[in-house]
Specification:
This protein is an alpha+beta fold and 600 residues long. It has 19 helices and 11 strands.
């Protein structure tokens, strides 16, 4: 079983040395977030991840959740870990003090979420789902709803869910059938079934607050007729404590490929009492508050899995002896050399390393943008942050999770046959992470959102806002000849990205299928460029630190070598992607559907 270690050093490098979070926090009014406080929080979060969550990860996979008579029992140690999580104040970190929170930045809590997910993906999903519930209530709940629910949710005494999917209705939310009937007391009676509800039932908390989308009897068809409701498992009494059991129940839990210790529930609403959030028929607008947060969070699950797979593969590659190095014996006292000397093993390890560290920088940058959208008082700063975040959210969600499929597979491959064996933990990472490309909107959905809605829908404005940042950074580097090759490469890719976008738009003008045909390759192409932009920044900082005589030169030297690998072997993947995009939609759409199965 792998020995997970939270990447504290790299967290510090990205947040403080590359993205200057110290100045960022001060500019947003977080004067108390000193370097000492941040280091203490990272250390304590790492300790919780390594000592409490990682040891119960494998047993969670082996035992899974148990379902009997509507009751879900989580695996051994899971409930106790959640109790410690609550007692140590982790749920309340990034929430307002008026509701019992600690008033710390959102990005700080999200950093720790990577640690928790890397140590134990299934367990981390339980508190993770509550975040979207809380953000929705903070943004759209009435004062009474906030007072009733937020204190308990923020403390962790209660947990939350988001209930969207129905048996006939996945990403196409306009097809939903769940009904909400107005009641005389101002509440609503909800009837219907929701599926794939993570943490929909469990034994962690006294109450579960479901955020549910449903349709009123006279609602317009499609997405314009969706409303949003709070449906608690137990209705709060006059003292705000769990009172009468509501008519919402767990009908079953899914038997899944991975994340087996996360209860994925079928929830039945049989006249359940619900309370409208926001305006009637505006539920989709409210829903995107938690959907965007959830999409970024899912992307970071892909990051966490990539880092965990790299840690396991690296440790094994240093220890496993097989064959001699092609360039001569490296382990003279042993019967063979460690497999890390072999070029192909290094190819896999460096792919994992370059993606883990590049994705960490990219996602942390997005958390910086989230901070600005939440706390900035400068209207222009907030507007620009929202534009960049709108563009990058689907890329973070899809690119970070798609590349996690490759990196967790390499985790198994480095181990050889042992990677296929459960005891080592690599195959569990691959199984657990496979879901990440599917929930919170599949890769195809994210790609269409990026290309059609965000870029074409804004007439290129969202892309141009971020492109301006990249171009400005590259131009400012022109005097630094050491990085001209890499900065010129990023700027050249940027020009190509903008030109490619125009070409797709022109083709789509006469054939809308061109958008769908290009979308996923376009998103992945975008992801490699964006990560390359952050590798350029990391390389510049690393060289600066070396020039200044840093105490840990090996750390920074490794950054430069990894950057070299990324630019030479990873960024070049854009060549095949642009070739596929340029081929158009005919090779996808011309084959008659009746001809697909002729080989069977």
């Amino acid at each position: 079983m792998q020995n997970y270690k939270a990447p504290q050093r790299d967290t510090w490098f990205v947040t403080q040395e590359v993205l200057n979070f110290d100045a960022h926090y001060k500019a947003l009014g977080f004067e108390d977030t000193s370097e000492d406080l941040l280091q203490a929080i990272y250390a304590e979060g790492a300790k919780f991840a390594e000592n409490e969550l990682a040891p119960i990860n494998q047993i969670g996979d082996q035992v899974g959740c148990k379902f009997e008579n509507g009751v879900v029992t989580t695996p051994p140690g899971f409930k106790e870990a959640y109790k410690n999580y609550v007692e140590n104040g982790w749920p309340s970190m990034a929430h307002p003090e008026e509701f019992g929170g600690q008033g710390l930045p959102y990005s700080l809590a999200t950093t720790l979420a990577e640690y928790f997910s890397g140590a134990n993906h299934s367990w981390a999903m339980y508190p993770g789902l509550s975040q979207g519930c809380m953000e929705t209530l903070k943004a759209h709940g009435s004062e009474e709803q906030q007072q009733t629910y937020l204190h308990k949710l923020i403390s962790g005494e209660w947990t939350g869910t988001m209930c969207l999917t129905e048996p006939h209705c996945g990403s196409d939310l306009g097809m939903l059938k769940c009904k909400a009937e107005p009641q005389e007391d101002g509440s609503y009676a909800l009837n219907g079934t929701k599926i794939f509800i993570s943490a929909g039932e469990h034994d962690f908390a006294d109450n579960i607050v479901h955020i549910v989308i449903a349709r009123l009897p006279d609602a317009p068809k499609g997405t314009k007729g969706i409303s949003l409701f709070i449906v608690p498992k137990f209705l709060p009494d006059e003292n705000g404590e769990p009172g009468q059991r509501n008519s919402v129940s767990c009908g079953s839990i899914e038997h899944k490929m991975g994340i087996k210790a996360s209860a994925t529930c079928v929830l039945n609403f049989d006249g359940a009492k619900g309370f409208l959030v926001g305006e009637v028929n505006r539920g989709l607008n409210c829903m995107f508050t938690f959907m965007n947060m959830a999409r970024i969070g899912t992307g970071m699950e892909g990051l966490a899995a990539t880092d965990a797979a790299f840690q396991g593969a690296l440790a094994y590659a240093k220890d496993r002896l097989q064959f001699r190095s092609l360039s001569g014996i490296k382990n003279e006292t042993g019967p063979a050399d460690p497999i890390i000397v072999h070029p192909d093993v290094r190819r896999m390890l460096l792919t994992q390393k370059s993606l883990a560290e590049g994705k960490r920088a990219m996602s942390t940058y997005c958390m910086k943008l989230v901070d600005q959208t939440l706390y900035a008082t400068d209207a222009r700063l907030k507007e620009v942050a929202e534009a960049k975040l709108a563009l990058l959210t689907p890329i973070v969600k899809a690119f970070l999770t798609e590349t996690a499929q490759e990196t967790t597979s390499y985790g198994m491959q480095v181990y050889g046959g042992h990677g296929y064996v459960a005891e080592w933990g690599m195959e569990q990472l691959a199984r657990d992470t496979r879901i990440c490309t599917m929930y919170e909107g599949t890769t195809g959905i994210q790609a269409i959102d990026l290309l059609a809605r965000k870029i074409m829908g804004s007439n290129g404005r969202l892309l141009n806002v971020f492109a301006d940042e990249i171009r400005s950074y590259c131009q400012n580097l022109r005097s630094n000849q050491q990085f001209n090759v890499w900065s010129n490469s990023i700027e050249s890719h940027l020009d190509e990205w903008l030109q490619l976008t125009d070409e797709i738009g022109e083709r789509a003008g006469s054939n809308p299928d061109e958008l769908g045909a290009a979308a996923v390759d376009y998103l992945m192409y975008s992801g490699y460029i964006v990560v390359g932009y952050f590798w350029l920044q990391m390389a510049v900082v690393a060289q600066t630190k070396l020039d200044e005589g840093a105490d840990d030169p090996d750390f920074y030297q490794a950054k430069l070598h990894t950057a070299q690998f990324y630019f030479d072997r990873m960024l070049t993947r854009t060549r095949s992607l642009i070739s596929a995009i340029s081929s158009g939609s005919d090779n996808l759409m011309q084959l008659d559907e009746a001809l697909f199965g002729l080989s069977q």
